[in-house]
Amino acid sequence: MITQIEINGFKTLQTAVIPMRPFLAFAGPNNAGKSNLFDALRLLSMLPNHDLPDILHMVRGDPFEMFTLQPDGSYSRRLHIAVELLLDPTFDDEFEGSVTLKRTWLRYEMTIERENHDHSPRIQIAGEQLFVKASDKRLPWAASKAFKQMYLTTKRRNAPYISLDAQGEITVHQDGAERSRPRTMRRGTRQSILQVIRDAGEFPHICAVRNELLRWRFIHLEPEAMREPNEIDGPDRMLHNGRYLAAALHRIMRHDPSAQAEISAWVSQSIPGTRQVHIRQLDELHRYLIELETVDGRCFSSRVLSDGTLRMLALLALQYDEDQVGLICLEEPENGVHPRRLKTVIDLLKRFATDPQRDDLTDGPPMPLRQVLINTHSPHLVRELEPEDLILVEAITQVGAGVPPMRYTSYRPILPPTNGALLVNETVRESMQMRLAALLEDRDLGALWVDGAIGGVP
């Protein structure tokens, strides 16, 4: 789970410091730079499995467009991303089995630079660091005592797991049962340490970060992919575009007998006239097909269901899939959904995310952490959000004396976090809360955004 991200020199993101929550929405108009944050997260998610040249061609745009465009038309030479992660206390490794971490709140930093080698440009990793968050730091959002006891362990450690010296040398420090000499990685590599280091016995915390990034998913649902019947002996995990939705729902309902009734109840709540969701087996084709039964007994297949209904089923599949853990980034969940159903969409997404204020956590093994980030340009969706779950995104033009104007993306929480880099004086925060509460007496959050009463440009 991300607790904070800092980005500098990536596309339109300049010195951006963004406090994160288990559920968080980014609202802003088209072309404000909302997707650039997701692109930065996507870049991080590919580090454990891909070389840098491959990653550069999988992120939107030309490789050089990943760097900030300067007013003179050139691109910056460096980009830096730092992400603070709250990790699951244990994770499964294919060789070591279950691995328990001594420290779960870590900070990972990476720098990418452009250099000329033999008169040709080369993009390479200039630095990586991984170290423990200071034990006196507090989470940027309220959490119950039970949550902190279960997930937050910050035993003191002076040495980092990955360090970077003044000469740019990257050193990997072992922290497993068998300690040996640190390893030094050559500067200018095109592979992340998260890709090179895979021994969870010697490097459990590096491998835990690697495992976390590999779980991140970026969902962009496509109705035609969700309509398709799925092979019975084919994949049964829904892809990022919604393909294999029928097979995923069949697996979920088979493993959890109550899932079909609960999923059907959610659909009935948001779509009047519906009774139950079925996954039918097409014997002649050996395929699974989604069917929706209405109160009059008729059944309609996924081939004719509306885009909004299919999106709702996909979100339910994510919610009820126990294998779906970690971070989900979802672009514009309002697409194809009637405004009256958006509250149900938000309720579903918030139920998926871990609730850090729960105090009824069991004594058993902790459930894997789950986090949801969405972006939107819809005032109708903003209306259904809580103020603390909203960050406004704007394109700002910076103007200074003797300096050409420069456009960058601004991220501003409606309410500042209770702790962290953007912390404000408690008196100031209470004043902001009182002003917002007074505004919400007459208008909802979406209307306040449209009217400009809370800032931002919808």
UniProtKB/TrEMBL annotation:
Gene3D superfamilies: P-loop containing nucleotide triphosphate hydrolases. InterPro entries: ATPase_AAA_core, P-loop_NTPase. Residues 24-382 form the ATPase AAA-type core domain. Coiled coil: none annotated. It comes from the Bacteria. One of its GO terms (molecular function) is ATP hydrolysis activity. GO terms for biological process: DNA synthesis involved in DNA repair; double-strand break repair. This is ATPase AAA-type core domain-containing protein.
